[in-house]
Every structure is written in C-alpha cells, then in structure tokens.
Hints:
Elements: H1 2-13, E1 44-49, H2 56-72, E2 78-83, H3 88-100, E3 105-108, H4 117-125, E4 130-133, E5 143-147, H5 149-164, E6 172-177, H6 183-196, E7 202-207, H7 213-227, E8 232-237, H8 240-252, H9 268-276, E9 282-284, H10 287-302, E10 313-315, E11 323-328, E12 331-333, H11 339-343, H12 350-353, H13 359-364
Parallel strand pairs: 1-2, 1-3, 3-4, 4-5, 5-11, 6-7, 6-8
Antiparallel strand pairs: 9-12, 10-11
Amino acid sequence: MRRAAVVVAAGAMAVSLAACGSAKESGDKATEPAAGEKKGDDLTIGLLLPENQTARYEKFDKPLIEKKISELTGGKAKVVYSNAKQDATLQSQQVDTMITNKVDVLILDAVDAKAIAGSVNKAKDAGIPVVAYDRLAEGPIDAYTSFDNEEVGRVQGQALLDALGDKAKDGQIVMMHGAITDPNAALFKKGAKSVLDGKVNVGKEYDTKEWKPENANSNMEAAISALGKDKIVGVYSANDGMAGGIITALQGGGFTKLPPVTGQDAELSGVQRIVAGEQYMSVYKPYAPEAAAAAEMAVALAKGEKLDSIAKDSVDSPTTKGVPTVLVPVVSLTKDNIKDTVIKDGVYTVQEICTDKYKAACDAIGLK
C-alpha cells in the first residue's frame, strides 16, 4: 500500500547519520572548523520559506523542520526563519542577511527557482551549504528534497479521468497550472499531460501568476465566458488554493452541478470542499518525511558529513548535475480515504474538518 511506503520512507529517514565528513580530529583544539564543517550540535540553520498564503508552510513545514533539527542536535541548534511572502527580491535579501550572519547551512524553498541562483552562488562562496526544499532551486545547491512532482501531476490527471469516466471526451476541460516561476509547476503539468493527452479535449489552459486563487478565479471566469458552461466537463487545478478560486467562479457562472475539480496540498478548506462534494480530490503530501529529510541533510552538511545514508536518489537541475535527493511518495485524497490519510496522520481532527457547515456532509460519508 502507498501509505505503508510513506511510513517506511519516514522511518528510514529517522536513522542516525554516520559521521563521515572531513572535520579535523577532536584532539586538534587550536584550529577552528571551516564553514560547513562544524564539529558539534551548536549549529545555526537558516530556514527560508517562499510564502504564507498556502497554509502548509507556517502550519506544517516550519514547525516540523524545527522539531526535527532539535531532535537531531539535542536542542542545541538554532533555526533562523524568514518567509519571503511570495517576493523573490525580498528572499534574495533574506539570504544575504543569513550569509552576513554566518549561518552554518541554509534550507531554501525558492520563490523563483531561477532568480535565486545568484544568492545560492553567494552562499557557496561563503562556504555555506544549501538544501533546496520542495522546489529545485538553481545554482550550486548541495541537496534537494521534495515530492515526486511528475507523479503529483499523474495522480491528479488520473483522478480527473476516473471522475469523468466515459464522459471524458463529451466536452472540454480547463487546465489551471501553477506559476511559471515555480519549477514544480512545470513538473505537475508534465505529469498531468502524460495522463490526459489524447484522452480529453482541453478547451483552455492557463499558467496562474503567483499561484493566487484570485488569479485562478479570473482565469476560470474567462474560460467559462469563452467556452460556455455547458461545454466544461472538468477542471484540472494544480493546487487547492486555486481550486477554491475556480469553484467560486463555477458557482458564480451558473453551474447547477459542479464538474470535477482537482487540487493539491490537502489544505483544510480543500478537504472540506471534498467532503461537501465541491472539489473532487486533492494530493496529500505527507510533510513530516519531507521536513525530516531537509533537517537531516542540513545538519549533516553543517557538520561536514556525507549524505550517502540519507539521499538515495539524485536529480539534475538546469545548473547542477547529480544533486543528492530524497523524494517522498504522494497519495490521491478523496472523500473515501480522508480517515486513512490526514486524520490518521494527525494533520486534522474530525472536529476541525466537520464544523457546523460541513456536519451533514461529514455524516453522509461516515466521518464522525
């Protein structure tokens, strides 16, 4: 089962790291370790996340990474945090500040994967390793962890096909992709198209600026106007935030029965829309193993240790080949497996999902 695979992956990441770096022997007390070669657990780790509109970063990623770093260092490491609020220029300034303050390692989730390359180069010049988190940043990064992003798109595309059934070619679908500044968006698109090409008719297709729900809403309104509501049989949405904007446009566009809409991130509002039958599915990405991988790689790099025991895969970025990588499996989330995913893993409680507004819908699918 896929859930079992996730548990195994998470367990594997908890294995203690082997100290196989190039730090000098402990007897040499007169020499200070070079940057990236700290001897002990008294580390300063910079954490840079891209935005705070998507609930996951503040609610899950940040606390999970901080907790894992604390566990790995006996509570001795310090995490310095900055959120770029979807501003690539601000994020570059935040990296510069952390370099000036001589952090031992950076965990970086880039707003703009290409634009951040200059900052990654600055970190490299300062001897500060960089772990690319969730998005594959350009520049000389030292490690990368994310989900299998093409698989995310394939899961979304297959779910949409399943929902459409034998009506897949009866009308047209709208494809709402993410921001072109996010390399993950291109991978989601590639994965989805690998499943959907030739099996559906794509009426309209958009790259959504900054992933913003309001931009997805405007795009969907334009698609309804151009295609006509009677022609739209489904919507591929790359994440839950955009799905919310899309569904609002569909509801305002005169749809008496909503077509299936995909999503990603298993945001609480997305899960509630799934319960209510407004959104067909989301992609549940277990953040704990991703956060654990980032923390383990960051601590290892800060100590000058190798990543062989942590990163079993490698990927190529446009600028760097063979980046040590940990990829985490994903799960298709529908109303049929809410109990076995986000509730079982403690992401949400039944009470959080089944507020008064959704109680009847929860009762109808046995979510109590």
